[in-house]
């Protein structure tokens, strides 16, 4: 006799899962994800025609290995330290001649994948503070769009913008070293969290990174719980990266697709290695080393850019 199929039980189980109570945050996340997929799908099917994809891949040469290397290094550092992907990748791309707008756009496009998975897992494990997330997300997205638009609008002045962005990445390098050395910070109440998110999103788009170091560090230093702060900031980062990427895409197009592909490939290769090494590497020493490297490379870009202002 064929096995008895209990379709009503299966249907009831699915209905129970679907009809369970959902928090407002979960509803917002699912609606936002659906809208994001619709927008990305429209852009892909509108602009990524077969001819354009073939044209992009025809321009790919051995230089993509530089971007694979950049993505690998950035993901290894981020996997070991839990931060600094954006600033590391941006510093690397600037050092090999990529313009600030293309560097930031490429980094944020590749971060959409990593931050999306990371944010979703934080949400599933209950690490997201609903109130904090809702306070961060809208100002963060607005700041990201403003920063991306300003930077991409100044693409003709890339030679002048690059040393300015390098000053910012130098500042982030100093923040990384400070986080490694400082043992305890005095707690203080932070009231204008929305303005912090706006500022963090803006600088993140301008400099290609910094959302985590600026927003997370400030909130934790003000006395907020690290677990819920990191979870909420990580989830918000997906929307910040997506908004920044779409703005860059709308203004400067997809001429940097090979850079994005290189970063993603390098990151995919590095992710399992970094995860395995995360608990074996001396985190404090690694943070200091990464901060020093970022500062040195940033100083080099600043020195090379000084003649343009003279």
TrEMBL record:
It is a multi-pass membrane protein. The keyword Membrane applies. The chain crosses the membrane at residues 27-45, 65-87, 132-151, 157-181, 193-214, 248-274, 286-306. Signal peptide: none annotated. InterPro entries: TM_pro_TauE-like, TSUP/Inactive_protease-like. It is found in: Cell membrane; Membrane. Keywords: Cell membrane, Membrane, Transmembrane, Transmembrane helix. One of its GO terms (cellular component) is plasma membrane. This is Probable membrane transporter protein.
């Amino acid at each position: 006799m064929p096995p008895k199929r209990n379709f009503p039980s299966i249907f009831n189980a699915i209905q129970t899962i679907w009809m369970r109570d959902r928090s407002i945050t979960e509803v917002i996340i699912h609606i936002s994800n659906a809208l994001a997929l619709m927008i990305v799908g429209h852009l892909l099917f509108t602009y990524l025609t077969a001819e354009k994809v073939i044209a992009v891949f025809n321009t790919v040469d051995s230089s993509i290995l530089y971007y694979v290397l950049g993505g690998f290094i950035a993901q290894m550092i981020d996997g070991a330290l839990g931060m600094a992907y954006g600033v590391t990748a941006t510093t690397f791309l600037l050092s090999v001649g990529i313009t600030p707008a293309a560097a930031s756009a490429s980094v944020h496009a590749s971060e959409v994948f990593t931050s999306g998975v990371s944010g979703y897992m934080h949400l599933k494990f209950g690490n997201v503070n609903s109130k904090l997330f809702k306070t961060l997300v809208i100002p963060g997205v607005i700041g990201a769009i403003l920063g991306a638009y300003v930077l991409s609008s100044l693409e003709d002045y890339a030679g002048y913008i690059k040393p300015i962005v390098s000053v910012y990445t130098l500042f982030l390098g100093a923040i990384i070293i400070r986080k490694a050395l400082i043992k305890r910070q005095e707690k203080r109440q932070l009231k204008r969290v929305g303005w912090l998110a706006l500022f963090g999103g803006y600088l993140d788009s301008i400099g290609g990174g910094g959302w985590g170091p600026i927003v997370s560090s400030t909130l934790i230093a003000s006395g907020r719980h690290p677990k819920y702060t990191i979870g909420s900031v990580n989830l918000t980062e997906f929307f910040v990266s997506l908004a920044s990427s779409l703005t860059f895409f709308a203004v400067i197009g997809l001429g940097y697709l090979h850079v994005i592909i290189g970063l993603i490939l390098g990151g995919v290769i590095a992710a399992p290695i970094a995860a395995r090494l995360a608990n074996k590497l001396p985190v404090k020493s690694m943070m200091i080393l990464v901060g020093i490297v970022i500062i040195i490379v940033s100083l080099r870009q600043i020195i090379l850019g000084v003649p343009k202002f003279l």
